[in-house]
Design a protein that fits this description.
By secondary structure, the protein is an all-alpha fold. The chain is 54% helix and 2% strand. It has five helices and two strands. The structure holds zinc ion (ZN) (2 copies).
Length: 174
């Protein structure tokens, strides 16, 4: 409020600004100011809380999380804007899930059988390697199912298959 208005108001009762000045001194104005401060404080706390809550879902490091929370508390809405710009894009839950998926895929790849000669990925029921044509498995003489070299008995028909796998691959062309 410019000082000339205050001076004019003080010098004359018929001042047109008098009612306005009275309003600024009234309890209503006081109440409005208080409400303003209160809303501002609520907004500030809400911003700080949101920053903390969001950071907790994105930041694993305790120190960085504390810095984020402090930014929200000290700078309020401004801190929220800054945080929203620099925050990590991925949620921790999402990145953990991705990591798990990657690990499962790696495991699956590792578990996948490979031809012991040329390392071509082969399925468990392949009898010969499709790339180098070496024998991977023998078949049961009775039921024709593929059997592992270590098996003594065919698990499908109980036929003795011990020694069914020739010591040297029949397709061996070395
Ligand atoms: Zn092979
Ligand atoms: Zn069999």
């Amino acid at each position: 409020m410019p000082h000339w208005i205050l001076a004019a108001a003080a010098s004359s009762d018929s001042n047109p600004f008098q009612s306005a000045l009275d309003f600024f001194k009234s309890p209503t104005w006081h109440f409005i100011t208080l409400m303003g401060y209160f809303l501002f404080a609520v907004l500030w706390i809400a911003c700080a809380y949101w920053v903390f809550k969001d950071a907790r879902r994105r930041v694993d490091d305790k120190i960085i999380l504390a810095v984020c929370a402090l930014t929200g508390i000290v700078f309020g809405p401004l801190g929220l804007i800054v945080y929203a710009i620099v925050r990590p894009p991925a949620l921790l839950a999402d990145s953990r899930e991705q990591e798990l998926e990657m690990r499962m895929m790696e495991q699956r790849l590792a578990e996948e059988s490979r031809c012991s000669f040329c390392k071509t990925p082969v399925r468990d029921d392949y009898l010969v390697c499709p790339t180098c044509a070496r024998r991977l498995r023998a078949t049961c003489v009775s039921c024709g199912k593929p059997v592992e070299p270590s098996w003594r008995v065919c698990p499908y028909c109980e036929t003795d298959v011990h020694g069914a796998m020739p010591p040297v691959s029949v397709y061996d062309r070395v």
